[in-house]
Write a structure and sequence with these properties.
Helix content is about 30%, strand content about 30%. With about 180 residues, the chain is of the alpha+beta class. It has a single domain, classed as Gcn5-related N-acetyltransferase (GNAT) (Aminopeptidase, 3-Layer(aba) Sandwich). The structure holds coenzyme A. The site of coenzyme A has 20 residues, from strand 5, helix 4 and helix 5.
Length: about 180
């Protein structure tokens, strides 16, 4: 599904964050996040070839933007400080294609409500603006901070799924008035 070209979601704003569409030259700032062991502890650990992998991920997300009209955002404060990333993407998980909300922030910004603020904005984008029937998020069972973000953004635990051969908990939020089940 490619959105109507008149709809532009390149920039999103929350009360405290500016979210901007990823650009090709954002690789370096993202690679620094992916090179941080504290951030990566719940994301599979720091990869040995972090810069090349970041490049591949960014290229994939640029394609996602081109084909869908939404995707990965970099998050900044009004000061310009880089907080982390978040986004909305299509993934195949648990045997189905799902629309996923994802996020990771530099540790100095944890526990200040930023991920919840952005996840809530992305729920609005997915359900009210893109009009998807539902949106999911998933994480390791022990990632209580991420699970809490999902709950605060209105997602509810649905089931366990395998993601890259590791058990994850999958949460879902449906569009108000959409089909139940
Ligand atoms: C997950 C992550 C994005 C959360 O970001 P954040 O901005 O700190 O999230 P918020 O501040 O909006 O909310 C965090 C909530 O988790 C709670 N929390 C934090 N650590 C917790 C823990 N160990 N156990 C239980 N709750 C915890 C906080 O108290 C807060 O809940 P509250 O508002 O009810 O007090 C951040 O920790 C992160 O970037 N982690 C590394 C990458 C990652 O795991 N990404 C998610 C992959 S699915």
């Amino acid at each position: 599904m490619r959105l109507d070209a008149s709809k532009n979601f390149d920039t999103l704003r929350t009360a405290r964050l500016l979210a901007q569409r990823i650009r090709s030259d954002d690789c370096r700032v993202l690679a620094r996040l992916y090179a941080d062991p504290e951030v990566m502890a719940t994301l599979g650990g720091v990869m040995p070839d972090v810069e090349a992998r970041t490049r591949r991920f960014v290229d994939h997300m640029l394609e996602h933007w081109d084909s869908r009209g939404y995707g990965l955002y970099l998050l900044r404060l009004p000061t310009g400080a880089f907080v982390g990333y978040s986004g909305l993407r299509h993934v195949h998980v648990g045997g189905a294609e799902e629309l996923e909300i994802f996020y990771a922030l530099h540790a100095q910004f944890w526990n200040q409500g930023y991920a919840t603020e952005m996840a809530t904005r992305l729920c609005m984008l997915a359900l009210d603006e893109i009009c998807a029937p539902d949106v999911v998020a998933f994480t390791l069972p022990g990632n209580h901070a991420s699970r809490r973000v999902m709950e605060k953004a209105g997602l509810r635990y649905e089931r366990d799924v395998n993601w890259r051969n590791i058990v994850h908990v999958l949460y879902r939020r449906r569009r108000a008035g959409g089909a139940s089940g």
